Amino acid sequence: MAALKAPGRRSRKSAAATQAAGSGSSLVERKLRHLGLHQPSDFVVHLPLRYEDETRVVPIASVQPGASAQIEGDVIRSEVQFRPRRQLHAIIQDDTGQLALRWLHFYPNQQKQVEAGKRIRVRGEVRHGFGGYEMVHPKVSAAGTPLPQALTPVYPATDGLSQASLRKAIDAALDTADLSDSLPAELCQRYNLISFADAIRVLHHPPANVSYADLIEREHPAWVRIKFDELLAQQLSLAAARAARRRQRAPALTAVQAVLPQQLQASLPFELTGAQARVIAEISQDLRRTFPMHRLLQGDVGSGKTIVAAFAAVQAIASGCQVAIMAPTEILAEQHFHKLSAWLEPLGVHLAWLAGSLTGKQRKAAFDAVASGQAQLVVGTTALIQEKVIFAKLGLIILDEQHRFGVGQRLELSRKGEDSLGHEALIPHQLNMSATPIPRTLAMTFFADLDVSAIDELPPGRSPVLTKLIADSRRDEVLGSVMTEVREGRQAYWVCPLVEESEALQLQTAVDTHARLVQALPDMRVGLIHGKLATAEKQAVMHDFRAGSIDLLVATTVIEVGVDVPNASLMIIEHAERFGLAQLHQLRGRVGRGSLQSICVLMYQTPLSMIARQRLRAMYETADGFDIARRDLELRGPGEFLGVRQSGQELLRFASIDTDIRIAEQAREAVVELRDHYPGHAQSHLRRWMRNKQDFLRS
Fold first, then answer.
1. Which CDD domains is this protein grouped with (predicted)?
2. What is the value of pTM for the model shown?
């Protein structure tokens, strides 16, 4: 996409990169391209990560550990030491004291810089050393040179690309790029925003009087403008995606009053909750429209999302379309298949199963059933997006735990629907399901183009799970609890984070733990399941556990999502401090599936990091999935919720969805006005900020 240019200005693509290299070095240009810096407009918004204050020299006596400082003094000793390893060691002294300098890797010219008797200036982070305060790998320059008059920016870089080269490239871009404002003056005035050009110049070249704290905390008006611009561009892109989807056509699945949905309702052995009924009605209304549904169904662990998906499926099937349900693991997909088969096969619905474990003959039979249209509901894993899978008429796709799929995988399944409906230029409806509730700030920022339904009540008869925090030094007590539960006819899980021994982490492993528990509990039937077992073995173990033939199941996180065994009332999570918060909540949701009082024991190893303490405290304090999601967002960021970690794309470079909620709300307000009254400005803004990212956000 072309850079923004002032009228009459010729394009200067890659000019900044060329000037940065001086001689046009292709190596420097390659490094710049690796950072996504191709044309002047890219360099302009490649903003500093932080700033170094090189404007003053401080006395050695005033330095504090953990803080960066710049000092000037005489080198009174310099030598290469060989204990415990080869390193360059020097002592610098000024009128107030002495400081050690150390380089673990150094070159001869660095050794010359710090020869005894020389007066030098050094900058770096001060830390505690063996003999007092020290700097490791400080930056060295000649003493007496003029000090900078402003803060020095430090940019995101890559191996082999120096800060000096980056600064040169960015300065070249600032001379050639178009810095005209993409926002109308009225909007800037309403939200008290400084101009884009002023914001960019301040951030790349902070004036001498600028507040260091405001820059570092990103509270300076220049940062406010940049964060507003970024959030506005994202919201504009999502609004465009929503508008584009409404211009597309989808099969209108109008058979809501058909016999099949009514038969499903009448055959259920339980009453739907009010929340389930409300959500079913919302989805049904979407499916009757002639543009594609794009709805997110969120509900806490055990809230009953599968039956909601079943009602959506029968509406599509009764309307003459196929339905595909894709789950991230074979265990979860198989559980969906069994549940849906039990509900729908008695009503005459034909189901097909597609997973990697099928034999060649079974796979061909499934392919044929899908292609002919005989299979009305197809359940499976990512096997659904194999090239050989061809649908007859796919009108609805359902993604369970949608954030666990890659962006490309989600799009691929949608395209299969488009191919099957291609002669009619139709797009399939899409329902995304997640047992990880999306916090409000995340829903507003990243899911603005989706309609969101929430199942906010659990089915009756569910007992809340009691959560206990126990140090692993009390393992014998935990074993006693397992024996008590099993003697009373109940079952238990014992979850471990790794399958094989890791010297780095030194964690308990599922294999070793299983062997030890078999020895410690000789009268108990102890099973083992983990991701490295063959699919048939995993299925056999889960069948035995559901049937009650296994008392204690030792497992990795393969049982994290979807496994439903109502008789399991106790879960022990080994090394709970190593798991993410959302993962712990999902695991805890495997118990408490029936009316039994259930317990989740989080067994941890000391000492605990601050993050681990926060996670365990959150698990102890609340069972509310929305509160868990909010805390997890604060700890880990939005990538886990969105399923985009593997994409390599940055979600937000400058704004924070946790601390910049007010700016996000203002950006949402501005979107409507910009699209309705200033379409030219809206397009300019998207070109500046969203180049090559619109499709990523729309997926």
1. DEXHc_RecG, RecG_wedge_OBF, SF2_C_RecG
2. 0.67
